[in-house]
Amino acid sequence: MSRTVIRGGLVITAADELHADVLIEDGRIAALAATGTPAAESFTADTTFDATGKYVIPGGVDVHTHMELPFGGTFASDTFETGTRAAAHGGTTTIVDFAVQSVGHILREGLDSWHAKAEGHCAIDYGFHMIVSDVNQETLKEMDLLVEEGVTSFKQFMAYPGVFYSDDGQILRAMQRSAENGGLIMMHAENGIAIDVLVEQALARGETDPRYHGEVRKALLEAEATHRAIRLAQVAGAPLYVVHVSAMEAVAELAKARDEGLNVFGETCPQYLFLSTDNLAEPDFEGAKYVCSTPLRPREHQSVLWRGLRTNDLQVVSTDHCPFCFVGQKELGRGDFSKIPNGLPGVENRMDLLHQAVLDGHISRRRWIEIACATPARMFGMYPKKGTIAPGADADVVIYDPHAEQVLSAETHHMNVDYSAYEGRRVGGRVDTVLSRGVPVITEREYTGRAGHGAYIPRSTCQYLN
Predict the structure, then answer these.
(1) What pLDDT shows up at residue 48?
(2) Is the pLDDT of residue 76 over 80?
(3) Which residues, in sequence order, are bridge partners of residue 96?
(4) Which of 68, 233, 332, 424 could form a Cys-Cys staple with 240, CB 3.0–4.6 A?
């Protein structure tokens, strides 16, 4: 039996803060005891980490990543190996990525393909959601089978006609099925049909720069689609999780639905909390680095998103990590913003940016852990194995130095992409050491893990449903 003790740190979970020593046995949390007490002194171990003056927090749970995603004629630049290694550097110990059903193919084919990409390559634990691009009777039957085997969430798109798009009838059918089988529908809520009209009109006017990507993907069209998704879910009697919420008008739709007692949940991402249309408007095509969908919004939306996180109208912060290099990938859209691959790198930055939000007074320390670790684990059926520090939980533990400072930069990050969306930004706090199931994968900021350590996680259903 291998035993590890982490001594002297401030243990922070979504519920508590306690100066405690943590005993780990065979990859799980075995016990916690207040530092200096006889119970803590009795902990013996093969390996001891001194966390004095530091935080001891659960590993981050990022439930929205896209490793190796095919998009716009290219692929996301992070593999499961590079992406999960970068995640570990940033204090994230579990990701849930998206397997893709191609139109005309069955769900199983897409899921098997993603298993093949990930298996034996991940530094940290991983699970899958299923992107449903082709709703038919066979697909609906397969959804039941996937839920039974631990793929309990399904993503649909109201955007991207001709690629991932589902119409209202397809969405309703999938929602009705999830109401029966316990699955959770995740929705990319933007009115893609209307957006395509606006894209065509903008390009016809010669408006080709990256900033027009934000102008055509209007906040009102995010709000309209969010409203429609909520009402379709209500008709189906199904829960709904709206991904990457960026606009204050969409937050208002979520808040209204939650006030009505509906099982409706919302996720936002660091890019919407820290970046804005100012970035999309950067000259010399630099704005292309910030093209993602939903798009970055004007700065005034940020305060509403922060308030939504404080009031629990938004419950989760994920990254939607989907990196494309500026050179050779983002550049595909020079002269036509609609050809810029959509996505930003961020899996390594989320925990640090949210800690900066604690320092800035936007959220409390416990809320930081709640929105980045505990709630995503509960939302997608992994709690209390993931997302907390408690006896019986997996020993996914981060020793975090709140006093360190760092400057985010492509020079120093570990994501396989040639720019940082947060280049030059100074943040307070830094990951020191990361354990995944008790195994050190980052030791004093150095990578000590290995590809293939990460295990696939079958998930139970959403733990928030009435």
Answers:
(1) 98
(2) yes
(3) 127
(4) 233
Q: What is the DSSP string of 67-117?
A: TT-EETTEE-S--HHHHHHHHHHTTEEEEEEEEEPPTTS-HHHHHHHHHHH
How far is the C-alpha of 148 from the C-alpha of 134, rounded, in Å? 20
Phi, psi at residue 266, to the nearest 5°?
Answer: -135, 140
Please determine, for residue 161, whether its predicted confidence score (pLDDT) is greater than 80: yes
322-327: average pLDDT: 98
Q: What is the DSSP letter of 165?
A: B
Cβ-contact 277, 211 below 8 angstroms: yes
Distances in whole angstroms, Cα of residue 297 to Cα of each of 109, 135, 260: 36, 32, 27
Give the integer Cα–Cα distance in Å for 269 and 266.
Answer: 10
Beta-carbon neighbour count of residue 465 at 10 Å? 11
Measure the CA dihedral 369/371/372/376, to 10°.
120
Distance (Å) of CA 437 to CA 94, 124, 374: 11, 9, 16
Angle at 192 between CA 65 and CA 152, to 5 degrees: 40
Asked whether the whole model's pTM tops 0.90, one would answer yes
The answer on pLDDT for 192 being more than 70 is yes
Please calculate the CA angle 129-75-335 and round it to the nearest 5 degrees: 125
Q: Give all strands (DSSP E) within 189-247, no chain letters.
A: 240-242
Tokens 């993907």 identify what position? 217
Beta-carbon contacts of residue 108 (< 8 Å; ≥ 6 apart): 142
CB 437 within 8 A of CB 394: yes
Confidence bin at 458 (pLDDT 50/70/90): very high
Angle between the 300-311 and 248-259 helix axes, to the nearest 10 degrees?
Answer: 20
Q: How far apart are CA 326 and CA 341, in angstroms?
A: 10
Residue 333 DSSP one-character state: G
Say yes or no to pLDDT of 466 above 60: no
Q: Is the peptide bond before 440 cis (omega within 30 degrees of 0)?
A: no
pLDDT > 90? residue 73: no
